[in-house]
């Protein structure tokens, strides 16, 4: 669940910082989310958090007032991790490249609403205005962006990702590495296989059994543009 004061104190007592992986737009939004989490605890964000990027992307040494470290400096004894990479496949590869004993942090914004009947996997991020009702199970390293809603009795795999205002109706079963674009939605009782991208504003009304990109209303497979003769 969200890193409570006791969890943050536990991380600090171990000599660790919360390390946000990625300094892109979403990484910086996660920092803002984390700042909202801790603001009532009398803690300073610069005392508990930092950023980390790949060695190839390591150019700047700080962003938004926090230090940036290269990936080669990672040590699970000193860092607890939240992976703030929007692409689910890339995020999965990033997690797989961390040591098995890496400690992951789940960040839940104070304005998000989660019932007591929600199971949320480690390393997940739930941003402002998100609502999760009851009997919902979501896997590891999910990212639920602003004002996402998920209805009752949904089972969702690892690395699930939503852009702002995505809406998941009740009784849906969704595989891993599925991405919902901004304002995308799915009808109740729909199954969606793994490795699917639902485009911005698309409406899923039928089960999806083949990986790929789906767009439109109703959602259908994206056809690659063909060169006109």
TrEMBL record:
The molecular function terms of the Gene Ontology recorded here are: transferase activity
> Which keywords does the record carry?
Transferase
Query: Which Gene3D superfamilies does this entry report, sorted A to Z?
Result: 3.40.50.20, Hexapeptide repeat proteins (2.160.10.10)
Where is the PglD N-terminal domain positioned along the sequence? 17-97
Q: Which domain of life is it from?
A: Bacteria
The answer to whether the entry has keyword Transferase is yes
Q: Which InterPro entries match?
A: AcTrfase_PglD-like, PglD_N, Trans_hexapeptide_repeat, Trimer_LpxA-like_sf
Q: What residues make up the catalytic site?
A: 152
Q: Where is this site: Increases basicity of active site His?
A: 153
Provide the transmembrane region boundaries: none
One Pfam family cited in the UniProt record for this chain: PglD_N
Where on this chain does substrate bind?
86
Q: Which family does the record assign?
A: Belongs to the transferase hexapeptide repeat family.
Return the protein name. Transferase
